[in-house]
Amino acid sequence: MMILKRTVIIAAAIILLITSCTMAETPVDTIMNMGTAQAFTDEPVAIDDLNTIMQAGLAAASAINQQPWFFVAITNQELMDEIVGSGMGFAPPPGAMRNPDDGPSEGGQAVPPPVITSGAKAGLGDSPVAIIIYRNDASKSPNANFDCGLAAQNMVIAAASLGYGVKIVSSPTMALNGENHDMLCEKMEVDPTMQAVAVLLIGRVNNTVDAATGASTRETLETKTSIIK
Description:
By secondary structure, the protein is α+β, with helices and mostly antiparallel strands. Helices cover 37% and strands 15% of the residues.
């Protein structure tokens, strides 16, 4: 009886091991399955995970290895709110999009454009962590923006592989590079010659919030690619 019981336990352990290996995501699986996170929980991002994510960004390729980037991770909610208040008051309210085609009425009076209802749309301040990607204009990179984009994608994939949701946003860069640029650079402890090119919002996805309504669909392989033989 003891031998039979031990055999059953060993068999169960082997099955569990095989199953876990089969279910493990490959890097391609991670890329194919990740989407844009539009709602986050308040759960903090572990510092070790945050360092791993930024290390993945540093591992990105860059032209003539110039590495024309600097990453600033922010967990301070007050600082995020300050950035938003520095030049993003024109942004639509969360969960709403303005129709850009709406103009003044026939009488010339400005009419508030209608609000188009959609699912949740996360912005700066809605995630526990935001990573600002700065471009170092002092570098000799012939295409620094592209290099920073490669670093951003590396960090997105790393965050997704660690179980976090990510959203890439560029609208905060208008505030970061605006009239308060030098003051914000001082707070971020970066040289004022640097320019923000993108911001990553990172955190655990809040699946209780509707983030699907109004979401656009992906184009197909057939419509966006070709192979020349």
